[in-house]
Amino acid sequence: MSRFASLWLLCLGLLLLPGCADQPGKAGSEGSSGSSPDGGDGKRHSVAFVTNQIADFWKIAEAGANDAAQEFDIDVDVVMPPEATAVVQKQKVEDLLTSGVQAIAISPLDADNQVEWLNEIAEKIPLITHDSDAPQSERLMYIGMDNYAGGRACGDLVVEALPDGGKVLLTIGRLEQDNSKYRRQGVIDVLLGRDRTAAYYQEQPDAWDPTDGEIAGDKYTIVATVTDQGKPEVALSKAEDALNTYTDLNAMVGLFEYNPPALYQALKKAGKLGQIQLVGFDENDVTLQAIKDGECIGTVVQNPYMYGYESVRVLNEILNGNEDVIPASKYIDIPPRSITKENVDEYWEDLRAKKGQ
């Protein structure tokens, strides 16, 4: 056999050896990590922004998430569970994981009871929280406001509406959420004249005021905290019932975005707008119009647009390998603002611009 033929047979044998066709660094080889900064195999990053339910509040956050998606050239799936339950929220997230989403930002519905589940997600992909935190979980960080500070700002509006004191009704979706507990407590502490912080309740877990029954102070009495499990129609029905039950009310406070409009409708139907003071939270159009018309003393707003934008920006950085985007505090503070008749026009104009209206 000639030297040329021998060399040819040797090369052919090498080519036929198992695995020799794979080259380091190419798809299918052990030298490939299976992922890349763009999501792997040339695909774009894919992240999800998960809310706790469907609401106008979250449509503003969706606008922020979509703007960030365009700016950073990644795919974003904004998921709003049709029911405000932990079961439905979990189903939506499991669907996202099955679809191959690479990172998730979520507003937990029941932080205390979702820790184990959140930890399971965090073991698989980067996980952050927004709007409502789950500090006991392995989430990487939280984006949102200090809900206790937001509650205190709302309490200040109640004091402005009732400087001489009075009887106050609090309404909110549910109290299982981390943000709900702190927001409600902030209002109560202002009305009872307490000088506390969110850290106080982290260090003193038995200091929370009971959720049932009356809470009385020297000037103000919280007659009840009414929950509706995130259902606007239930919020309206319970507001109407409260007006019949507590006939000497001086103020009604709505602590979720849809609560103030429900209180407004109940007060209007009962002919008590202006007689019973209305204090809100978040930026529903009904609430803002009531402020303009002098029928609502004011509302404390978050910045849902930035919740969406910052969540997408941070997840994109994490997927690009930039862990420095996570602060040492594991918290990006987006402070609340109080909106009253003096600044409602300016605020509403800016809000419409962000929503593309």
Automatic annotation (TrEMBL):
What Gene Ontology molecular function terms does this protein carry?
Answer: carbohydrate binding
**Span of the signal peptide:** 1-21
Give the region (Disordered) as residue ranges: 25-45
- What is the superkingdom listed in this entry's lineage? Bacteria
A Pfam match is: Peripla_BP_4
Which InterPro entries would you find in this protein's record? Bact_Solute-Bind_Prot2, Peripla_BP_I, SBP_2_dom
Low complexity composition bias: residue spans: 25-38
A Gene Ontology cellular-component term: outer membrane-bounded periplasmic space
Predominant location of this chain? other
- List where in the cell it is found: Cell envelope
Q: Which SUPFAM superfamilies match?
A: Periplasmic binding protein-like I
| Periplasmic binding protein domain residues | 49-323
Key words, A-Z: Signal
**The family this protein is said to belong to:** Belongs to the bacterial solute-binding protein 2 family.
What is the protein named? D-ribose-binding periplasmic protein
Q: Which organism is it from?
A: Fuerstiella marisgermanici
